[in-house]
Each structure stands twice: as C-alpha cells, then as structure tokens.
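Many introductory courses stop at the sequence. We go one step further.
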Amino acid sequence: MLQLDKEQEAQYGLELATKRQEHADLDAAIHTLTQSQFADRMLVQRLKKRKLALKDRIVQLESILLPDIIA
C-alpha cells in the first residue's frame, strides 16, 4: 500500500476535486450539445472521450486516497 504524506494527500485531494468538477462540466456540456439541433457529432465524441479519461483518473485517485481495507 502506498503511504502518502500530508502534502501528497492534499495534492491528490485537490486534483480529485478538480477532475470531478471538470467531469461534471463536461457532462453538462455534452447534455446541452446533444439537446441542440446543431450539435457537432465529432465535438460530442471528443468530449465523451475526454469525460471517460477523466473518469478513469478519478477512479485511480480515489483508489490512492481511499484504499480498500481488508478487515
């Protein structure tokens, strides 16, 4: 298990919060674009791909900050 000092934990926590906000912003943008008649399919695809990459990083950060504890 990776041992983090307080500074590393704070950095990862800040990155996690930032990635979660960016993920939510992309979700809103994708929703708005898909509701529009003039949506650019390529743009929506790129945004969805970025959103998926963010989700992967969020899961990675959560596993670092909140490791599974075997009781």
